[in-house]
Structures are given as structure tokens and as C-alpha cells.
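Hey team,

Filing this mostly as a record. A colleague (T.K.) asked me to run one chain through the structure pipeline before their review meeting, and I want the input and output archived in the tracker in case anyone asks later how it was produced. No errors, nothing strange. Just documentation.

Input sequence:
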Amino acid sequence: MIWSPDPGSGAASVGQNADSGHGAGKTLFCRLLRYCLGEATFASEDQRRTIVAKFPNGSVGAEILIGGTVWAVIRPIGQTRRHIVRREGRLEDLAESKEAATGIAPLLEALSSVVCPPTLDGIVPELWQDTAWLFVLAWLGRDQENRFDHILDWRHARSESGSPVSSLSKDQLLAGVRALLGILDDDEIRIKNDRQRIPSKRQNADRDLAYLRRRIEELRAELLRRAQLAQDGAVGGPLDLAALQSLAEAQLRACLEKETARPFAAKIAEAWTERDRVLQESAVVDEQTKKLDAKVELTKQQMQGLQGERTDLKVKELRETHGDLCPICFVPIDLALADGCTLSIKRRDSRSVADEKAELASRIEGCKTVLDHYSVEAKNMRARISTLRAREDALEAQIKDLENLAEQHRDACRRQSSDARRFQDDVGEFADLQDKLSKAEGAILALDDREKELRDQQSALRDRHSDVMRRFNDLYVFVSRALLGSDVESSIDLTGQGLQARVQVGGQAMESLKTLVFDIAAMLMSIEGRAGVPAFLIHDSPREADLGESIYHRLFRFAASLESLSAQPPFQYIVTTTSDPPLEIQSSARLVHKLSGSSVNDRLLRCDLG
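Output structure:
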């Protein structure tokens, strides 16, 4: 027992110097002890900084008896990082040693050897590494901040202990406790793990089911809208999937038929045929026009020749008339007279010249007549070509318009076909969603059935542990009556909701007391060799859990009475208190240290931490 006396009501006068049993270091003592037993920290961050400032080179140490072997451990509380563990060593020797740090892993391994099972990995998979001992230490050395509110409340966030149990749920803590008390075997662990996985599976299945239902309803409304069907129409209510599939197939088939029909193909072919005919006719007329132009050109050349001849006849007529030239060779007469003329015997013939002129005029007139005929014919042909080209342009415009209409028709058909295929795909998706919904509903029913099956199996397996639970309940009742009298109503049961502890006096529940009773009953199970934890317990100021003084004294006397179970006390129960213990306890070796918060020298660290 570590006692820091409270001065009581006698020191409660107004204006008197304050004094209490608090602030002496009881909780720090428990935290330092837990630190020596392997816990990660010994105080909150703020308190650690204060202690480091006061003891920059400070250390804390302990000797721990494990399986008959003494282990010495020293851990830093100052600025150093030197953790030393020695098997079969003395604390004084270790404190003076200059050996290298060993870390605390060897100590944790040794402490884990007194735990059964030595590892909780298969029971609480969330525990990191081999932390069975730290799990046990958290239970057997509860934080004072939890005020013994619940049998599974061990570590408070305010203590900043760094214990691996801080992140575990009540179900995980319960599984570990049951395994350590021998009321959880491998089969039940397997079933428990299977059951623990079911809620997450069920949650995922419920989420999938909610999504499927929402998506089905959205898709159903969309399909009905696109099919131009009322929500409560032919396929309303329970949606007739077969009707939608039939409608989708009919729409796609109609679109494909419309797309292959090509309504403008005949008109386009007819227009192309007419255009080819016009082109052929244009080519013929054009060729004829070219030939006519050639004839015109030839006739013009003939007229030019005839007109030349007419000029010659005029010259001839002049000569015949005037005689200034030789009518035969057109040589000047003077020259012919001077030199002589061999043709002078030819006589002049003016009548012949007139006949030639008449004939030439007739021929020229004939050419003009031909030219006039050719001109009319050429004009008609050019008019025909102009008409044909206009017709050609009109046909090409018509073909272009028809081809545009055909392309628009194909685009519209493709869009409609695409919409029809998309509608068919969406109907297919709707069918798949309906199938998935059916499977999801079946999976949820299967999970519910599986959970019920596992629950029944778990219940049957718990019956295996009836002897252990019966003994644990007997010890729980025994401790309850020792502290509260024979009229107390108490029990501890293993149900589907876990360990249900109950302590009542006169119908009033004793919530805080049942946690103390639970811990002491578990310690008695350890004494009997029925539990996989050492018979070791630390209770930091249990009186602050609203225990009456009479109950508190019974607690101390009951613990003292257990020492008589063997020649050497088979357990170690460490209690800190501000309330006065019974007189016989105060005067015995059970009171190992007395502290006071009123005097610096009587505090645990003999200094003011501020």
C-alpha cells in the first residue's frame, strides 16, 4: 500500500493552508511502475517535460521476479535514451553499470512467458508485434483517470500512455480478456473473427443494395421516359423486363430497316442517268457546232477567194474597155510597141469578161446563202447547248440536294440506330442490375443466416466454458459479499453481448464496485491457476471511484485475509490511497510507503513539479 493521508474535515477551516492527500505522486508511482514493466511512457507530455527539466539525467529502476528469476531494469526519465535490462541482476549494480543499452525487448519477452496465451495475435489481430504482456498490463494496472467506470475501460486518452490497447474496441478487449481467463478457445476465436467480419460485409452489401435500388429506379424512370411509357403504364409498377427488351429489339430492327431502305437512291440514280444523257447530247451538239463552224470558215475562205477573183475581173474589164494594157499579157502597150508582142494577134473579148463576172457573182451569192444558212443553224445549235448546259446544272444541283437529303437521312438513321442500340444496352444494363439486385438480396439473407448460424455455434461453444464461468461467477459473488455483505446480489455472465457484470445492494447498482470485484475475482482465478495472467494487480486510488469508507476498509481487510492462502502470499496487490486504511493495515508491513502532498520532501520525487 502507498498512502498519502488526507487531513480530513479537521483541516477544512476557511483560511487555513490547503493540504490534501493529492499531488504527492501516487499516480506517478503507478505510472513509473508500469513504465518499468514495459509500458511506453510514464507520464503525459507536459509532465514528462517538467520531470526532464528537474532530472535531466534521471532514471527509474525496478527488480522484477519472473518465474523465480530476478530481472533488473533501468529506464530513463530524463534526456538519456538508455534502457538496460539484466537477467539475474541487482538494481544497484545495474545503476552503476556502464554497459551498452539493451532495450526492453528481453524483459517483455520474459514477462510474456507468464501470460497464457503468450500471444494474442490470433485473437486480437490488430495488436502489433508480441504485445500480450502489454495487453495484460493495461488491464491489471488501470489508469486512475478511468475511475473504474467499466470493466473494459483501462487506458484514458489524458494519460498518454502509448499502450497498444488504446486503439482497441470493447469487443477486441473482451476477446483478449476471455482468452486470458480461459473462456475462449480456438474454435470460438475463429467463429468470433468470422462474426466480426460479417458486419463490414453486411455494411458493404447494404451499401451495394442501396446503390442498386437507386440506380435501378433511376434507370427504370429513364427507360420509361425514352420509351414514352407512363410510370404506371404497360410496363409500370414491377417493370416488365421482357416488354422493354422486346421494344428495344423492335426499335433497333425498325431503324436498321429504315437505314437500309435508301429512299433517295432511285431518284439519285434517275437524276444521274438524265445528267449522263444531257452530257451525251451536249457532246453531240457541240461536235456538230464545231463541224458547222469549220464549214462556215471554209465558206468564208471561198468567198474571200471569189472576191479576189471579182477584183481581177474588174481589172480585166478595165483593160478590155480602155486598152491601156495588153489584153493578153497586161503589158503596157507602149512597151509592147517598142519591143514587139508575140501575142498581139489575140483579139479583145469584153463579152467573155461579162460572163465571168456573172458567173462569179452567182457563186458569191451562193456562198452568202450558205453562210446565212450556217449562221441560223449555228445559232440554233448554241441555243441548244445553252439549254442543255442549264439542264446539266439543274440536274447537278438536284443530285447534290438529293445526296444531301440522303446523307441527312443516313445521319438520322445512324442516330436513331445509335439511340436504339443505347436503349437496348441500357435495357441490358437494367437486366444486369436486376440480376445483381437479386444476388445482393440473396447475399444479405445469406449473411444474416450465416451470422445466426455463427451466433448459435458461439452460444454452443460458450457452454463448453460453463465450468470456468461458473467458477468465475462463484469467485465474483464471493468477493462481492466480502465487500458488501451476504445480502448483495451479484453475478457475472457470458452472453452474446459479452461479459455482463452486476453488483446490487438493495436494488441500487454499484457501478464502480463491480470493476474492483471483477479485477480481484480474476486475480483469485490466477491464484487457482485458472487464468493466464499473473496474480498481480495495481489499483490507483480506488476510493475515488465513489466507494464508501466501510467498503474501502473491507477491501483492504479482504485483501489482507487472502495472504493466508499459502505460506507466502500467492499474489501481489498494489493499492494507492488517500483515505485512511484500517489501523491494523497502517501499522503493518503492508504499508510500504507514506507520501504527502503538503511537504516537498514527502512527495514521491521530493521536489515541486509545478
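Quick notes for T.K.: Residues 12-18, 233-238 have pLDDT under 50 and may be disordered. The two ends are 26 Å apart (CA to CA).
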